[in-house]
């Protein structure tokens, strides 16, 4: 049974790998006018230069992160991540249950643009809206620490915490808002959010479509730019049962 479960999980994740591969396209418009003459203001969201209090109290950091260069194949990156994540959990004694909470592991993968100046050292956060059998549930302030170099694929393992006992039967990914702070703009050409429950052999996945790309950027170091996903740009599939 464990072998079958792992196979199902691999097939589910591989769908995301195929989507990443299909996102690799050549640039146009003279490499976006040479990245606006070596990265001037690049935002494409219409939501830049927002000043908000940077609340650190509810920040959720990754429990594990790996970054892969553009030369690494998607299948190789996936295999390496799975292997190293398993070793990390064994070493740290990861448990799905901790006191009065249940930890739901899930994964976020991003692909940064391959041109000069498309990577960033800025702070990136993500808010996720989940649809459940009891209604909408929003979880905020997931921080994507590290990575996002030019051309890199970055995968982050995070934890969604829920009170125990869990009072919902299932959840799906409804939408997400990706935010960047500062003037070091970031062009991301792919994002995926994925969660899989081996106990019930069910999972949820949220992938950007072929041709997707967005620039986040602001004109002041403390300002935020954000992009909220829309159905035209993303494919939502699967349902995570508890």
Tell the overall outline: globular
Structural class: alpha+beta
Uncertain residue segments: none
User: What's the average pLDDT?
Assistant: 85
The fraction of residues assigned to DSSP E strands is 35-45%
Q: Which series of helices and strands comes N to C?
A: HHEHEEEEEEEEEEEE
- Compute the number of strand runs: 13
Global Rg: 18 Å
The residue fraction in helices comes out at 10-25%
Major beta sheet, specifics?
Answer: 8 strands, antiparallel
Number of helices: 3
What is the CA–CA distance across the termini? 18 Å
Q: What tags apply to this protein structure?
A:
single chain, 242 residues, alpha+beta, eight-stranded antiparallel beta sheet, five-stranded antiparallel beta sheet, 13 strands, 21% helix, 39% strand, globular
Description:
The protein has helices at 2-22, 29-39, 74-92; strands at residues 64-68, 97-98, 101-112, 124-132, 135-143, 153-163, 170-181, 186-197, 202-208, 214-216, 224-228, 234-238, 240-241. With 242 residues, it is an alpha+beta fold. The strands form 2 sheets. Strands 1, 2, 3, 6, 8, 9, 10 and 12 form an 8-stranded antiparallel beta sheet that branches. Strands 4, 5, 7, 11 and 13 form a 5-stranded antiparallel beta sheet that branches. A hairpin with a 4-residue loop joins strand 8 and strand 9 (202-208). The longest helix is centred in the first third of the chain and has 21 residues, at 2-22. It starts with a helix and ends with a strand.
């Amino acid at each position: 049974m464990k072998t079958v479960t792992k196979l199902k999980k691999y097939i589910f994740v591989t769908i995301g790998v195929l989507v990443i591969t299909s996102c690799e396209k050549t640039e146009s418009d003279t490499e976006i006018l040479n990245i606006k003459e070596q990265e001037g203001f690049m935002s494409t969201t219409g939501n830049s230069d927002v000043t908000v209090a940077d609340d650190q109290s509810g920040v959720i950091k990754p429990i594990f992160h790996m970054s892969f260069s553009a030369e690494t194949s998607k299948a190789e990156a996936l295999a390496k991540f799975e292997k190293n994540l398993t070793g990390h959990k064994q070493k740290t004694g990861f448990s799905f249950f901790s006191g009065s909470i249940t930890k739901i592991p899930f994964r976020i993968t991003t692909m940064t643009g391959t041109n000069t100046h498309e990577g960033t050292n800025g702070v990136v956060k993500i808010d996720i809206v989940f649809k459940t059998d009891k209604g909408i549930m929003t979880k905020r302030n997931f921080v994507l620490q590290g990575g996002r170099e030019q051309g890199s694929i970055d995968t982050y393992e995070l934890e969604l915490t829920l009170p125990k006992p869990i009072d919902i039967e299932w959840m799906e990914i409804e939408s997400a808002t990706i935010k960047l702070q500062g003037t070091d703009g970031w062009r991301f050409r792919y994002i995926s959010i994925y969660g899989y429950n081996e106990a019930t052999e069910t999972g949820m996945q949220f992938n950007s479509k072929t041709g997707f790309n967005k620039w986040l950027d602001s004109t002041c170091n403390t300002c935020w730019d954000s992009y909220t996903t829309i159905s035209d740009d993303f494919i939502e599939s699967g349902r995570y049962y508890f």
